[in-house]
Amino acid sequence: MTKVDQHSGKLIVFSAPSGSGKTTIVRHLLAQEQLNLEFSISATSREARGEEKHAKDYYFISLKDFKQHIKDEDFLEWEEVYRDNFYGTLKKEVHRIWALGKHVIFDIDVVGGLRIKKKFPERTLAVFVKPPSVDELKIRLKKRMTESEDKINMRIAKASVELATAPQFDHIILNDDLDKAFKEARELVKEFVAKPLPKDEEEE
């Protein structure tokens, strides 16, 4: 396993509509030690839910502090998903992972994923995980039994918009067979991390 530094560290982005299986794929990739990946923990202004823990699931930051971080340009990307409900990637989180000698892997929404790709086009591999169909997506979300019908319908409406962004990503993985999706994701990431990085694309 080759250690990386800030100048050679890569950014691996996985984005998808909720229920597409991106989190399952990201967890699988994290278990592949030879890929040398570390998960990027997002920051959020919302309260922790259930068993969620600070600095493990998210960095839970007050709304006031989150807005201050925005002013101070501390984020690589950020988004106001709902009113006063912010999510973002702190630059220091990326530096933390590179300091460990690892590549960064993200499990974030399409807007954040595309912002990272735009900022670091050569350093970033952006992968879109596509469900077999919107109907299948609805079935998967219902099976979770964690959200109301209204919330599921909101997610489905959002998914239709997100699916339209798929061509802007480097690769699209159709998740209709999980083992096949795992294999495709492994091969994409393995090939990408092995590529040398242009010297002119470095983190601020």
Characterize the quaternary organization of these chains.
Answer: single chain
Structural class: alpha/beta
* Secondary structure tally: strands: 9
CATH third-tier fold name: Rossmann fold
What's the CATH superfamily, by name?
P-loop containing nucleotide triphosphate hydrolases
Number of helices: 7
Describe the 3D structure.
The protein is an alpha/beta fold. It has a single domain (11-194), classed as 3-Layer(aba) Sandwich (Rossmann fold), CATH 3.40.50.300. It is 39% helix and 21% strand. The protein contains seven helices and nine strands; from the N terminus they run βαβββαββαβαβααβα. It has helices at 22-30, 63-71, 91-99, 110-119, 134-144, 149-163, 178-194; strands spanning 11-15, 37-39, 43-44, 59-60, 75-82, 85-90, 103-107, 124-130, 171-174. A five-stranded parallel sheet has the order 2-7-1-8-9. Helix 5 runs antiparallel to helix 6. The mean pLDDT is 90.
